[in-house]
Fold:
Amino acid sequence: MRHGPLRPAEPPGTIGAAVGAAAARLARAGLAAPRVEAELLLAGLLGTDRGGVVTRRPDPLDPRTRTRYEERVDRRVSREPFQHIVGVQQFYGLELRSDRRALVPRPETEGLVDAALELPLPPGGRVADLGTGSACIAIALAVRRPDLRLHALDRSPAALELARENARHHGVDGRIELRHGEMAEPPEDWHGRMDAVLSNPPYVSEAEWSRLEPEVRDHDPREALVAGPSGLEAYAALVPAAARILRPGASLLLEIGWGQSAAVTGIVSAAGFRDVLLRPDLRGVPRVLAARRADTTRR
Structure:
C-alpha cells in the first residue's frame, strides 16, 4: 500500500541522490526513521541542519564529503548509535560529547534534573551525582544553578575522562568535583555534607540485557547498564551509601526502570528514608523516585 506520492528521483551525484540512497540502506537495516537519520548524518558534514540538507538537494556532493558520508551510513547500518557517529547528544538543552566511554544520555534522565531544580536547595548547597557517566546530570545542574557545589562519582576512569571533557566544554569544570570510586563507597569527606544525592544507576537485569536494541547492548558500557540478575542490585548498594552522605532531612532522587517502583520504594524505606514520591515520565511510567532522609536515619 502506498502512503503518499513517490519522491522523484534525484539527479546522480547530488546531495538529494546521496540522501535517497542512504535512506534506502537505513530502511533495509530496520531503522524507524531512515530519511530523517540520512539527512541528519549528512547535515553535520555540510555544516548545516536537516532543513539545510533538504534545501540543498539539487547541489552536487563533493567526493570527499561523499566518502565520509558513506562511512557514517555504514556505521549506522551496523547499528552503531547515531550519537556515537555524530559525536554529540543533546541533554537538557546542552550539547554533550557522546561515545563508548559512557551511556548516551537519555531524555528520561532529564526528569532527574527537573526534580533536583524543584528542590529547596540552599545557595551554595552540595549535590552528589553517584555514577555520573558523561556528567550530564551534574553539568545541567551546574549550568542552571551556578551557586551549587556539585560532586560526581564514577567507577570508570574512561567515563570520568569524558565527564571532564563535557564539563570543560560548558565552562563548569571548576564547579564539579569529579571522583573515581564506587557508588556504594563514596568518599568519607562527603559523609553528612550533601543537600541532595542524585543517581541514574544501572538497573537492567541480566535477562533484559540480552533483549536490548543492538545500539544499546553492543555499544553502551555494559557495567553502566546491567546491575545483576534482578536489576535491583545497584539500588541496594547505593541507597545506604546515599544515607551516609546526606544531611538529615536532605533529598535522594533516583531514576528507576519499568516495573521497579515498588521494589525500589521498599529498599529506600528500609534505609530510613521518608516521604517517598514517584514522578512519571512522558509515557506515564514511574521514572524518578524522590525521598527524604529522616533525621533519625542511621549513618
